[in-house]
Amino acid sequence: MFLLTAVVAVWVPYFQLQKKIGLTEQKIDTMRKMARELIVSDTNKIAVVKKMEKWYDENRWDIYLPDGEYKILLATQNIDHMGFAPVVAEAAVRGGRHVIELLHDKGDKSNDISVLFDDLAIIEVRESPDWDKGYGSSGGGLFANCEQLSTDEPVVLFRRRWHYKLTPNSTGPKKGPTEGLLLWIERTAEN
Predict the structure, then answer these.
(1) Of 165, 162, 172, whose CA–CA distance to 79 is shortest?
(2) Tens digits of pLDDT across the chain (191 residues)
């Protein structure tokens, strides 16, 4: 009888602890998603997550690129809901873990767009003041949750299309391609 009591006294807390551990692991997974933590589970794939915004329209991504050569591309014209647009600027980058940031400074005399790679400006583009007429936009940064993606396809980090005055009292997106911002990264053909 004593042996049975000892076994129950040991195994009941063990099973209760295992149940608590399982629940805690689920909570940790949920918190990782909420914290937008970059998780690299396959080093042969691109891993990307958009960092938590600290102020309006902050667009920063933690990204892991497998070994190799890549290019970051920016388009500002002819941006549609899907697909790609003519490249206005691009920069070569290497694999590894990095932070990419997209900045748009709308001024009276110009719209200045910069792409930072590990806090260094690698792309700088200047558009005219009427490029963004200030009627709003649709779209934005992607990857609120960490995702792993193949290196065979381009990875779109940001797609935003400007709105236009449709009637004297309303604004909205044009049908078809329009001005805006499209930022993506792709592996170079030499890899």
Answers:
(1) 162
(2) 777 677 667 777 777 778 777 777 776 666 666 666 888 999 999 999 999 877 777 899 999 999 999 999 999 999 999 999 999 999 999 999 999 999 999 888 999 999 999 999 999 999 999 999 888 898 988 898 889 999 999 999 999 999 988 888 988 888 899 999 999 999 997 65
Domain residue limits, the chain: 1-34, 46-187
- The answer to whether 170 touches 63, Cβ cutoff 8 Å, is no
Measure the CA–CA gap between 104 and 139, rounded to whole angstroms.
15
* Rg of the chain on CA atoms, in Å: 23
